[in-house]
Amino acid sequence: MSDRIFGGIGLVLAIIYAWAAAGIQESFLTDEVGPKVFPWIIATILGLSSAWFLIKPDPDPEWPTWGRVAEIGLAALVLVIYAEALPAFGFLLPTAVASGYLTWRLGSKPVESVVIGVVTALGIYLIFRSLLGLSLPREGMELAIDGFFSSLGDLFASDPEPAPATAPQGD
């Protein structure tokens, strides 16, 4: 019975998600695919998965213990706090803390989790900013990193002559 309840809730969520996706306004400047396709794909996969739970439920489901449910809830709370912290603290600090916590809960030792969190945050930041050119929330640390890489780029610029500081004066 629990699988059918889960499937019913998922099906209702899929319908709500598809309905919300249908309301997305399309601009005349969008590409051929448009902004509605990805939400429609998500709604379709969620709907089909939920229908599977309704049609063919597990006869003897194993539910996690209350301790495990609390741990899952705490992980979800960390992700909500992470999303709220991004605008205030930038990308690096919240990403390092959240990924460090989650790797610790998945079984890493505390020191390993700190290292993994920092390396993950820096790696994702550099890939998104440098290689993909995407915008991420930035605060003090990110601005310092961007300034460092900008100054490195200035060192290797192909133009050896600096631009004049002021415009030439006319007669």
TrEMBL record:
Residues 6-137 form the DUF1468 domain. It comes from the Bacteria. Keywords: Membrane, Transmembrane, Transmembrane helix. The chain crosses the membrane at residues 36-55, 76-102, 114-132. This is Tripartite tricarboxylate transporter TctB family protein. The lineage of its organism: Bacteria, Pseudomonadati, Pseudomonadota, Alphaproteobacteria, Rhodobacterales.
